[in-house]
């Protein structure tokens, strides 16, 4: 397939639909972007991206390996943007609490435009199978899913991973169904970008090679066809991975071993603290991700998936050659694999969203086909249900919980909300308004606020003594530390910052 045919939006109505989609995509992501959140991992990725660029500029390529994820794609985006800003403003060449917001905003903005391009590629690929209208509705739904949207506004990798995976798998499917050099090369390229984003995506390239090879063999029964598909996808994967990850130039096997060793140690064995039904655990168990999907996926998508399943069972035909079968096997495998590691986080389900939203749109299309007289009613109802959380949760979509669980406080008792730097700008403004400029603060996680606050005025309450701070800031599910409770000095609840109905930041003031 010629490269020019990768974009097939010739019809005027399609072009207008694209313009509207792009406008909506940006309208729900850009407003408030400079003052919504500073996730602690984002602070880490600013530092890692800076070291990544230092490694490139100095020829110390081993420095481009900063983390086991490994986050290479994110570091390319953030590192490039920050470097340009530094070159344009030499006075701001060093991160400070005064210029961090500028670096952070433009980094997130750049990441959003990368996501937009990837979403348009996804739209084009889905159009080839399901037609433009269903494909457009699918990408609109996933783009407006509140939790997916909330993650896309963070400086993080989960949405990048989701889009790289979806595109890479679709290119692999097309290459396996009817080989073309362009599709096979794109499959290897996008799957390499997925792996360079998060190491868990190694499963995607293995699946594309294994399932795709089986697919080709069942169709052609020709060894040359199998070798051609396998070879082009795999070699493209290797070339892109090596080109974009200079640490591999220095020590190819050593770097890969470090990535998987750290992923196994931290991601599988170490676990991650969670509060489930009010109980603290470092391994949330097999029910965690089913609960996450019920809580973080909107009822619109969940009902659409149910409808798809209902209609599919009524006319059940197993078609192993269909794109839904190909994608379904992978995403079912991803879900099952993610259940077993002890480290569990709600945002690890973000890669599931593109496939779930596609199923939901197909489910609703079945309803419209069966009951065409209710088409306008269905569209109006779904539109209202989609728009409401966009207004109600702005701009803190990351805290979205489904109305199935009732209030935010009720959902918090099932799976506790992580602070994750949400609303730190609002918190800072509240502190300045009520307590004056730069009182001394005690936090559990100091990274988000330190990025925009004088570092000498922020302390870790687990390490520093009580005399070091005037206010203690506690996030959701954070309790007053024992050294404070055992002290003769008292801290009383002075103010609370509520976010989307949840008592998010509690401000305790020292009594004198």
Molecular structure report:
Helix content is 60%, strand content 7%. With 512 residues, the protein is an alpha/beta fold. It folds into 2 domains: 3-392, no CATH class; 424-510, no CATH class. The chain has a 5-stranded mixed beta sheet. The radius of gyration is 24 Å and the shape is globular. It starts with 11 loop residues before the first helix and ends with a strand.
The helix-strand sequence is HHHHHHHHHHHHEEHHHHHHHEHEEHEE
Q: How big is the Rg?
A: 24 Å
| Shape annotation | globular
Overall mean pLDDT = 91
Level of helix content?
A: 55-70%
Q: What is the number of helical segments per DSSP (H or I, 4+ residues)?
A: 21
Taking the sheet with the most strands, its summary is: 5 strands, mixed
Question: Approximately what portion of the residues adopt beta-strand conformation?
Answer: 5-15%
Quaternary state, please?
single chain
Tell me how many strands there are: 7
What class would the helix/strand composition place it in?
alpha/beta
Domains, number? 2
Q: Order of strands in the sheet with the most strands?
A: 4-3-5-7-6
State the end-to-end distance: 75 Å
Low-confidence stretches: 1-9
Give a summary of the structure in a few sentences.
The chain is an alpha/beta fold. The chain has 2 domains: 3-392, no CATH class; 424-510, no CATH class. 60% of the residues lie in helices and 7% in strands.
């Amino acid at each position: 397939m010629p490269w020019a045919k990768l974009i097939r939006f010739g019809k005027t109505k399609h072009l207008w639909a694209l313009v509207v989609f792009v406008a909506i995509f940006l309208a729900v992501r850009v407003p408030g972007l400079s003052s919504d959140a500073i996730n602690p991992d984002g602070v880490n990725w600013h530092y890692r991206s800076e070291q990544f660029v230092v490694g490139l500029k100095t020829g110390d390529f081993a420095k481009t390996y900063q983390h086991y994820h490994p986050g290479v794609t994110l570091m390319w985006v953030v590192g490039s943007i920050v470097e340009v800003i530094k070159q344009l403003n030499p006075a701001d060449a060093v991160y400070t609490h005064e210029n961090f917001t500028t670096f952070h905003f433009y980094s997130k903005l750049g990441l959003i435009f990368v996501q937009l391009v990837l979403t348009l590629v996804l739209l084009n690929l889905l159009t080839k199978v399901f037609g433009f209208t269903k494909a457009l509705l699918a990408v609109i739904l996933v783009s407006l899913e509140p939790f997916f949207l909330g993650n896309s506004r963070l400086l993080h990798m989960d949405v990048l991973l989701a889009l790289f995976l979806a595109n890479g798998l679709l290119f692999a499917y097309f290459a396996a169904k009817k080989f073309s050099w362009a599709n096979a090369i794109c499959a290897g390229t996008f799957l390499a970008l997925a792996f360079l984003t998060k190491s868990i995506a190694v499963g995607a390239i293995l699946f594309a090679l294994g399932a795709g090879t089986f697919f080709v063999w069942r169709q052609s029964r020709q060894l040359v066809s199998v070798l051609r598909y396998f070879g082009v996808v795999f070699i493209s994967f290797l070339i892109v991975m090596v080109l974009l990850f200079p640490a591999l130039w220095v020590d190819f096997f050593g770097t890969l071993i470090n990535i998987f060793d750290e992923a196994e140690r931290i991601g599988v064995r170490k676990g991650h603290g969670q509060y489930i039904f009010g109980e603290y655990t470092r391994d949330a168990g097999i029910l965690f991700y089913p609960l996450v999907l019920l809580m973080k996926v909107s009822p619109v998508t969940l009902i659409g998936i149910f409808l798809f399943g209902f209609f599919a069972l009524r006319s059940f035909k197993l078609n192993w050659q269909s794109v839904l079968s190909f994608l379904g096997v992978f995403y079912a495998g991803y879900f099952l694999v993610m259940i077993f590691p002890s480290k569990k986080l709600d945002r690890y389900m973000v890669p599931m969203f593109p496939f779930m939203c596609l199923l939901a749109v197909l489910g609703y299309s079945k309803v419209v086909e069966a009951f065409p007289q209710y088409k306008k009613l269905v569209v109006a109802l779904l539109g209202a249900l989609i728009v409401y959380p966009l207004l109600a949760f702005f701009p803190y979509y990351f805290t979205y919980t489904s109305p199935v669980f009732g209030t935010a406080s009720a959902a918090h008792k099932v799976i506790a909300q992580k602070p994750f730097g949400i609303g730190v700008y609002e918190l800072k403004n509240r502190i300045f308004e009520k307590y004056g400029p730069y009182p001394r603060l005690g936090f559990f996680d100091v990274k988000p606020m330190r990025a925009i606050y004088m570092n000498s005025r922020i302390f870790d309450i687990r390490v520093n003594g009580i005399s070091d701070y005037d206010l203690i800031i506690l996030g959701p599910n954070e309790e007053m530390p024992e050294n404070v409770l055992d002290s003769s000095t008292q801290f009383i609840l002075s103010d609370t910052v509520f976010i989307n109905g949840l008592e998010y930041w509690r401000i305790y003031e020292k009594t004198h």
